[in-house]
């Protein structure tokens, strides 16, 4: 059977940017920069991009293109043993977990689009989010039943995701022409509005004024590497799947550079929109930025909406900018979400030879089912725990394993020769040094730091039992699911016997 192909190379680049650019750029990067030295953070961030993010991105794109298959089959061919498939299945099991909660965030966003019409949070955005929208219970152990509006949003999200990828890369190609430029345009609009508000410059000061002493803190470096990995969508098998639909002659290094830098530039712009707005909120309410939530769900669903309710010009202006913001989040997130599903589907279809469309439908239904726990009234707690653990452990360990397999077992020099042979941008020996030494060592250091942290004190003060289930338990389950899919018989095993 002939492999699917991207409509053009620029569509591939758009789709890859769409996957990388997501909530991580809008609500993770600005907060990280602020907390880790402001303007000084750009140094570790840039170092992390060059020593780990870009090398890994190029590596994954090269693997996908070379083996013309999703992550599991690609690693199996690379290692020439069935067991190597696991290095592809584990990330896919992990990304399944991620998409199940990423979809919930989009479900909240759908709800907020609706609430924007009446600026329903204007009497208090914090109570509105935790109390009315989430109806958050007092502990992760009290699920409190399903939250119906969130459930509706979740179903909508999955229908949307299904629709975007139902015909594989052909339909993805059509969608990303919209879902990549639209949020960027909306972000720029929000940024300009923010910068022209009173107080904006004080906000920008918080964002950018450098605190150089932070550069001596190893945790700041760890944060920079963590941000790069999460934001570029590497180590989840997605980039391997996406590049597996590229033709032989595609230029991997050039594409990788475009994708990586676009992603960082968009993060940087998002910082202006966010901190300009926070500066305005400080100016109009007198609450100091250091007392506000400047990252994560708290930023998007509490702090930012509060600022929208203060906008001058009357309710309609407020409604329009709120809609703009949530529409931006939605379009920002959707292509990251469906890229994950596409990565999983590609892995399954390549191994088992299943019908693509049916596989898409099945994975979407499974993702919806898997996300139900997050649609309960304790959903936010579980999301918080699961997110923390899979990003701290799975992501990092997968990175180390990939570097060992490619750098030491397969041979970094072989892969570099391969991707350089069809590229105008030749990567030097430094790329090999990164993949063999620098990237895996930096990952290892971060991992140890995280481990020490998590063992020293309970994350966010949750009871140990919940951290064992939602943290270590989920990590363990993804490892086991990876093994199960590895040992299952695929189409090649049956042909061979
Ligand atoms: N990069 C995405 C963002 O910035 C989130 C993300 C992390 C992701 N890992 C991924 C998206 C894997 C797709 C695939 O929000």
Automatic annotation (TrEMBL):
Keywords: Membrane, Transmembrane, Transmembrane helix, Transport. CDD domains: SLC6sbd_u1 (cd10334). One of its GO terms (biological process) is sodium ion transmembrane transport. It holds the Pfam family SNF. The lineage of its organism: Bacteria, Bacillati, Bacillota, Clostridia, Lachnospirales. Its main location: membrane. GO terms for cellular component: plasma membrane. This is NSS family neurotransmitter:Na+ symporter. It is a multi-pass membrane protein.
């Amino acid at each position: 059977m002939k492999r699917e192909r991207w409509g053009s190379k620029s569509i591939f680049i758009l789709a890859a940017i769409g996957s990388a650019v997501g909530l991580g750029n809008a609500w993770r990067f600005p907060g990280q920069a602020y907390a880790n030295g402001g303007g000084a953070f750009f140094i570790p961030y840039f170092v992390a991009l060059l020593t780990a993010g870009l090398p890994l991105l190029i590596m994954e794109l090269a693997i996908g293109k070379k083996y013309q298959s999703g992550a599991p089959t690609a690693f199996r061919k690379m290692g020439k043993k069935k067991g190597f498939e696991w290095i592809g299945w584990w990330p896919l099991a992990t990304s399944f977990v991620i998409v199940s909660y990423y979809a919930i965030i989009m479900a909240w966003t759908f709800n907020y689009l609706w609430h924007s019409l009446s600026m329903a949070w204007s009497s208090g955005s914090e109570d509105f989010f935790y109390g009315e929208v989430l109806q958050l219970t007092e502990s992760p152990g009290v699920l409190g039943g399903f939250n119906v509006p969130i459930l509706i949003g979740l179903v909508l999200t999955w229908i949307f995701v299904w629709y975007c990828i139902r015909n594989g890369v052909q339909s993805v190609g059509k969608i990303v022409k919209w879902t990549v430029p639209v949020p960027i345009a909306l972000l720029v609009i929000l940024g300009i509005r923010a910068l022209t508000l009173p107080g904006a410059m004080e906000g920008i000061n918080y964002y950018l004024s450098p605190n150089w002493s932070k550069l001596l803190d190893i945790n700041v470096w760890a944060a920079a590497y963590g941000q790069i990995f999460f934001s570029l969508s590497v180590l989840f098998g997605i980039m391997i799947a996406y590049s597996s639909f590229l033709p032989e002659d595609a230029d991997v290094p050039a594409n990788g550079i475009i994708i990586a830098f676009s992603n960082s530039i968009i993060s940087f712009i998002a910082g202006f929109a966010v901190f300009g707005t926070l500066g305005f909120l400080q100016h109009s309410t007198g609450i100091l930025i250091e007392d506000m939530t400047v990252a994560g769900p708290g930023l998007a669903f509490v702090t930012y909406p509060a600022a929208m309710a203060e906008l001058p010009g009357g309710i309609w202006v407020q409604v329009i900018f709120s809609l703009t913001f949530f529409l931006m989040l939605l379009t920002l997130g959707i292509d990251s979400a469906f890229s994950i599903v596409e990565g999983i589907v590609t892995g399954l279809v390549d191994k088992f030879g299943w019908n693509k469309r049916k596989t898409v439908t099945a994975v979407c239904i499974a993702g919806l089912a898997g996300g139900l726990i997050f649609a309960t009234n304790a959903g936010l707690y579980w999301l918080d725990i699961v997110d923390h653990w899979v990003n701290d452990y799975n992501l990092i360990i997968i990175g180390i394993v990939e570097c060992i397999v490619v750098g030491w077992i397969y041979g970094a020099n072989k892969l570099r020769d391969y991707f350089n042979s069809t590229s105008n941008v030749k990567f030097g020996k430094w790329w090999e040094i990164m993949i063999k030494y620098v990237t895996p060592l930096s990952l290892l250091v971060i991992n140890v730091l995280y481990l020490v942290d998590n063992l020293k004190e309970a994350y966010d003060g949750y009871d140990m039992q919940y951290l064992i289930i939602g943290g270590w338990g989920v990590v363990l389950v993804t490892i086991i699911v990876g093994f199960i899919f590895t040992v299952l018989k695929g189409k090649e095993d049956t042909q061979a016997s």
